[in-house]
């Protein structure tokens, strides 16, 4: 009996410790400025330039604007020249920093020589691997995607190859200088099995594992790697969904996410999305894989896109 009582006591103590640790973790996420403070010159102490992919709109545009406000010159890369030029003028007028624009389409091959040539020799403080592409706005089964072969090629090039190649271009300079940040935008759906978003979710899982591996390899060289995995953000990719408690504007999300740069190698970018992630991860896998869930999720996305 004494042994059984001891076992139950130890189990109870472990449960209490786990709950206390989880509560402390939540409280730390609620007050990032207290627990993960960034010095005022944090970004400029890392270098002089920020490089942002997919910067002409949405989250990428918001990162470019916010990092410029922190005093970094910015290299903005995207495929739409008019949007890039407009953003460059806006940033230069409002912040006075230098802006380099590079027009390219990340779904294509043989584009990285031009990028490397344009950023050669820059003291890059932070690379934001933001560019990404959905194969279809409304989630569906893989074989139901229109022009599947083309979409597979584009999504893998844009979501996977771009991050690998940009790290290949920029990481050597950071290692040589002994400082730098590589921030990669993933997605909340990378945290769970996500049928009907299979291709997109799989690319985001790759980004998280790739970033984790690089952090282990280059932590001793002074490089900080982090993936940020949002859920709802109102952008062109999500059909400019109406903002609410769970869906942020790109600007709100970026301001929040940068406060968590010292919170570890993975973050949701906000306490709201972190709690949402914990809840979703508690859902049994068989529910997430059920036909009923797929149908209801499709209808939910359609309504959000129409709202």
Topology diagram in text:
Layout: H1 2-30, H2 32-35, H3 42-46, E1 49-53, H4 58-69, E2 73-78, H5 81-95, E3 99-103, H6 112-119, E4 124-129, H7 148-177, E5 180-185, H8 198-218, E6 223-228, E7 232-234, E8 247-249, H9 250-258, E9 266-267, H10 271-281, H11 285-288, H12 291-306
Parallel strand pairs: 1-2, 1-4, 2-3, 4-5, 5-6, 6-9, 7-8
Explain this structure.
Strand 1 (49-53), helix 4 (58-69) and strand 2 (73-78) form a beta-alpha-beta unit. This protein has a seven-stranded parallel sheet with strand order 3-2-1-4-5-6-9, with helices on both faces. It has a two-stranded parallel sheet with strand order 7-8. The termini are far apart. By secondary structure, it is α/β, with parallel strands linked by helices. The protein has a single domain (41-306), classed as NAD(P)-binding Rossmann-like Domain (Rossmann fold). Helix 4 (58-69) runs parallel beside helix 5, helix 4 (58-69) packs across helix 9 (250-258) and helix 7 packs parallel to helix 8 (198-218). It has twelve helices and nine strands. It has helices spanning 2-30, 32-35, 42-46, 58-69, 81-95, 112-119, 148-177, 198-218, 250-258, 271-281, 285-288, 291-306, and strands at 49-53, 73-78, 99-103, 124-129, 180-185, 223-228, 232-234, 247-249, 266-267. Helix content is 53%, strand content 14%.
Order of helices and strands: HHHEHEHEHEHEHEEEHEHHH
Q: Please state the second-level CATH architecture.
A: 3-Layer(aba) Sandwich
Distance between the termini: 61 Å
**Quick one: how many beta strands?**
9
Strand order across the biggest sheet?
A: 3-2-1-4-5-6-9
Poorly predicted spans: none
Query: How many domains?
Result: 1
As a percent range, the share of helical residues equals 40-55%
**What shape does the CA trace take?**
globular
* CATH uppermost class: Alpha Beta
Q: What structural category do the secondary elements indicate?
A: alpha/beta
CATH topology (level 3) name: Rossmann fold
The share of residues in extended strands comes to 5-15%
Largest beta-sheet details? 7 strands, parallel
Give the overall pLDDT as a whole number.
88
Radius of gyration: 21 Å
């Amino acid at each position: 009996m004494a042994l059984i009582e001891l076992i139950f006591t130890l189990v109870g103590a472990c449960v209490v410790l786990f709950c206390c640790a989880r509560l402390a973790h939540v409280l730390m996420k609620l007050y990032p400025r207290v627990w993960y403070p960034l010095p005022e010159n944090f970004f400029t102490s890392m270098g002089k330039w920020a490089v942002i992919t997919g910067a002409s709109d949405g989250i990428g545009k918001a990162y470019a604007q916010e990092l410029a406000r922190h005093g970094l010159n910015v290299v903005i890369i995207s495929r739409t020249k008019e949007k890039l030029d407009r953003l460059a003028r806006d940033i230069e007028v409002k912040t006075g920093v230098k802006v380099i624009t590079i027009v390219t389409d990340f779904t294509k091959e043989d584009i990285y020589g031009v990028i490397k040539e344009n950023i050669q020799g820059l003291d890059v403080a932070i690379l934001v691997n933001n560019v990404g592409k959905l194969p279809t706005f409304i989630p569906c089964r893989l074989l139901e995607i229109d022009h599947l072969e083309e979409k597979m090629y584009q999504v893998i090039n844009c979501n996977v190859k771009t991050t690998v190649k940009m790290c290949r271009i920029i990481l050597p300079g950071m290692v040589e200088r002994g400082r730098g940040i590589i921030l990669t935008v993933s997605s909340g759906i990378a945290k769970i099995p996500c049928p009907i978003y299979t291709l997109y979710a799989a690319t985001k899982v790759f980004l998280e594992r790739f970033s984790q591996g690089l952090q282990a390899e280059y932590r001793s060289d002074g490089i900080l790697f982090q993936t940020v995995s949002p859920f709802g953000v109102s952008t062109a990719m999500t059909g400019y969904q109406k903002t609410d408690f769970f869906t942020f504007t790109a600007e709100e999300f970026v301001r929040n996410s940068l406060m968590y740069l010292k919170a570890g190698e993975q973050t949701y970018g906000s306490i709201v999305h972190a709690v949402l992630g914990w809840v979703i991860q508690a859902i049994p896998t068989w529910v997430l894989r059920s036909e009923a869930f797929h149908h209801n999720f499709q209808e939910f996305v359609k309504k959000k896109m129409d709202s």
